Amino acid sequence: MDQFDIRRIVEAQRGYFNSGMTKDVSFRKKRLNDLLCLIKSSDGKIVKALQEDMRKPVLEAYASEIAVVKNEIKHALNNVCSWTKARRIHSPKHLFPGKSYIMPEPWGVSLIIAPWNYPFNLAFAPLVSAIAGGNCAVIKPSEFAPYTSSVMAEMVSGSFDPSFITVVTGDARVAADLLNEKFDYIFFTGGTNIGRLVMEAAARNLTPVTLELGGKSPCIVDKDINIDHAAKRIAWAKFFNAGQTCVAPDYLLADKKIKDKLVESLKKQIASFYGDNPISSVDYARIINMAHFTRLKGLMDQGDIVAGGQTAENERYIAPTIIDNVRPEHKIMESEIFGPILPVLEYENLGDAITFVNSRPKPLSLYFFSSNPSNQEKILKGTSSGGVCINDAMVHVASHLLPFGGAGNSGMGAYHGKTGFDTFTHYKGIVKNTLKFDMPFRYAPYRFKLPLVRRLF
C-alpha cells in the first residue's frame, strides 16, 4: 500500500465522519453490537492466529485478548448513552444570566497503532473506545504478528464500511506513511523509542496522542509476606505470554532477609505451572521472532542463573529463567526485558528500595508484596508509576473500571472503560446566554466600573 492509497483511506474516513453519522448514539451502539457479534463468531480464528504467531496457550489467548475486549464492549454498551449526554454545570456569577454546559464530542478520524504481544486486545480495546466516542478509525497492527493481523483485517473488511473502520497492514514504512497523514487523534501502543517518533510526527500536525509505552516495572517484596502466595502470583505474571507483557514484573527487588526463600519458592511455582521441562508444556508461549529471541538470549550472561536458562532456537523457546545476584549496572537492567527472564536484586530497608525505583524512569506498573499497611502506604506515596498492585501483579490491567496508562517514559494518557471514552472524546465548554436583556458592566467606557468588576470576580 502506497502513500496515495493511505491518503485515500483517510480522506474517505474524513468524509464519513463529516456526514455526522458517527455522532448518533444509536449508531455507536449498533456498531458496538456488530463488533461484539463479530468477535463471538470469530473467536476460534483469533485463538488459532495467536497460536500461529507465538504459540499462545488457548486460555491465555482467550482471557487476555478476547474476553477483555468483550468486557470493554459490554461496558460501553451499558453506559455510552449517559457518557455522551451534555452536562450542565454551575455558572459563576460574573457570567449571569448565562448557563454553562460541557458537551462531549468525538475527535474525528483516529489512528490506532497496535503492537505484537497482545495484537488483538491492543488493537480492538482502543477501537471500542474510539467507536463509543463517535470516531472513525484506521488500525495499523504489527507486522510481527502476521496471522493475527490478517484475521483482524479479514474481520473488519467483511463487517464494516472501510470509510468508518479499516485495518491497514504492512511494515514500518506503512506506519511511517500513516503518520505523515493528518489524523484527529493518534493512539499508540509500543516501545518508548518508537513512541518518541510517533509523538514527533503528531506534533507536526498538532495532533493529540495517547502513548501506551512500557518500562521496567519493579516488583518489590517485603519480608512480611506469605512467601508461597507471593511467589505464585509473581511467577504467573512474569511468565504469562512468555514474559512478553508490557506490565510484566521486569525485575524483582526483594528484602535480603527473605530473598533466598522467595527464589526457591519461585522455582517450585515454575515447575508446578510448566513441569520439569517447560518446552513440552502446552501452557507456555514462544518468543515472537528471531530478533527478540537473540536479544533475550544475550541478556543471560551476567549474574547467576538459578532456574531455567535453556533455549531452543528452532522453536524460539526460552525457558522461564531466574537470574540471581544481578547488579544495577548489568546489561539486563538497562532497558525493558520483555521476555521470560527475571533478574533478582536485594535491599536492606524499604527506603533503599524506594530510592532505587525513583532513580529510574517512571514505570508503567509497580508491584509491592507486603502485609504491612504502613509499608504499603510508603510505597503508594513514595513512588510514581502508571499503575500499582499491592500483593498481586498484572491484574489491574483486566479491569475496565480502572484507567490504564503510563507516566513519564512509560507513556501519557490512559484508556479502558469510561477513561477510554474520555480519551477519544473532546469535552467542549459551552455558555448559553439570553438576548432578552443585557449586563452593561463589561462594555466600554469603563469609567467607575472597576469596583463592580472586582466584586464580581
Describe the structure concisely.
With 457 residues, the chain is α/β, with parallel strands linked by helices. Helix content is 41%, strand content 18%.
Q: Mind explaining what this structure looks like?
A:
By secondary structure, this protein is an alpha/beta fold. It is 41% helix and 18% strand. The chain is built from 14 helices and 20 strands. It has helices at 3-18, 25-54, 58-83, 121-132, 146-159, 172-179, 192-204, 227-239, 259-274, 290-297, 350-358, 373-382, 417-423, 450-456; strands at residues 87-89, 99-106, 109-113, 136-140, 165-167, 185-189, 209-212, 218-221, 251-255, 304-307, 311-312, 317-318, 321-324, 341-347, 365-369, 387-390, 404-405, 411-412, 414-415, 425-432. The strands form five sheets. Strands 10-13-14-9-8-15-16 form a seven-stranded mixed beta sheet, sandwiched between helices. A six-stranded mixed beta sheet has the order 5-4-3-6-7-18, sandwiched between helices. Strand 8 (218-221), helix 8 and strand 9 (251-255) form a beta-alpha-beta unit. Helix 8 (227-239) packs across helix 9 (259-274). The longest helix is centred in the N-terminal third of the chain and has 30 residues, at 25-54. The chain is globular. The chain starts with a helix and ends with a helix. The mean pLDDT is 96.
The residue fraction in helices comes out at: 40-55%
Distance between the termini: 58 Å
Strand order of the largest sheet: 10-13-14-9-8-15-16
Number of H- or I-type helical stretches: 14
Beta-strand residue fraction: 15-25%
Mean pLDDT across residues = 96
Q: Mind summarizing the main beta sheet?
A: 7 strands, mixed
* Class per helix and strand makeup: alpha/beta
Quick one: how many beta strands?
20
Query: Low-confidence runs (pLDDT<50, min 5 residues)?
Result: none
